[in-house]
Structures are given as structure tokens and as C-alpha cells.
Amino acid sequence: MHKLIISFLLLLVTTLVASESTVKINWAKDFDSGISQAKKENKPVLFVYSRHSCKYCVILEETTFSNIDVINSLNKDFVSIIAYSDENDAMPRELWRPGTPTMWFLKSDGNPMYQPLMGAMDETNFLKALEIVKMDFNKIKKSGK
């Protein structure tokens, strides 16, 4: 009986870990469709300019963007868009910056809320940034700007 309980618990933990790791950020198909979605849902936008061959882009995606709390916050409160320079993804010229990764927080109309964040950021600080952006975006919504 003891082995049966341990086997069941092991199966349960394995299932939970496997299901958590399959949760992903709901990236918009492209910049324009992401902005359309943000306008419709009245949400702020995380726009990431990245490159597959960029060491810090890979670190950002494998750590911060794989964190379940980051994923849940982005999927619930933001529209997330990612564009890859090495795939020639379209992006507004005014958002281009030399170097990747570049992360912009945008209002739902596509205009920047702040200057971009450059480089990889750990989960803890990124979650703090998301909270600040949500708070500022809600102030903007209330003011009607």
C-alpha cells in the first residue's frame, strides 16, 4: 500500500511539472495583429525585439520568459509581441534600437510608455516591472489619454 501511495504521488508531481512546463506566452502573430488585439482588449503591450543567435535573447527566453509567474502575468494582463531580426519580422522603424534583446512596454495604441529595456532581465525584476507597467497603464486608462 505504501508503494502504491508513493507511486501515485510521483505520478501526480510528474504530471503537474509536465503541465506547467507546457504553458507558454501567448505571442501575437505579428506586430499589427498584436496592436489590434491590445486596442480591442484595452491592454498594455510587451514588444520584444530579439534574435535567435543572441546569447542574452536566448537567456531571456529560457529563464524569464519560461517562468510560470511571468507567463501567467503576461497572458492575463498584456498582449505580448515578439519580432526576430534574423527572421526579418516587421516592426515600426521608431522602435528599432541597435542591440537585442530590446523590450518595449507600449500603450494599446502602440505608442511607447517608457524608454526600452535593453538586455536580459531576471524573473524577479521583470515581474516588478510588469507590476509597475500595469499600475501606470491603469492610470493612463483612467485619465483617458
Name its key features.
145 residues; alpha+beta; Glutaredoxin; four-stranded mixed β-sheet; 5 helices; 13% strand; globular; Ssp411-like_TRX; Thioredoxin-like_sf; signal; DUF255 domain-containing protein; AGR/TXD
Write up this protein.
The chain is an alpha+beta fold and 145 residues long. It has a single domain, classed as Glutaredoxin (3-Layer(aba) Sandwich), CATH 3.40.30. The protein has five helices and four strands; from the N terminus they run ααβααβββα. The protein has helices spanning 2-21, 31-41, 55-62, 68-77, 123-143; strands spanning 45-50, 79-84, 102-106, 117-118. Strands 2-1-3-4 form a four-stranded mixed sheet, sandwiched between helices. α4 (68-77) runs parallel beside α5 (123-143). The chain is globular and about 50 Å long. The termini are far apart. The mean pLDDT is 89.
| Radius of gyration (Å) | 18 Å
Q: Order of strands in the sheet with the most strands?
A: 2-1-3-4
Coarse shape: globular
Helix content: 40-55%
SSE order, as H and E? HHEHHEEEH
User: What number of structural domains do the residues give?
Assistant: 1
Biggest β-sheet strands, sense, barrel: 4 strands, mixed
CATH topology: Glutaredoxin
Given as residue ranges, the uncertain stretches (5+ residues, pLDDT < 50) are none
* Quaternary structure annotation: single chain
Task: Offer a concise description of the structure.
With 145 residues, the protein is an alpha+beta fold. The chain has helices spanning 2-21, 31-41, 55-62, 68-77, 123-143, and strands at residues 45-50, 79-84, 102-106, 117-118.
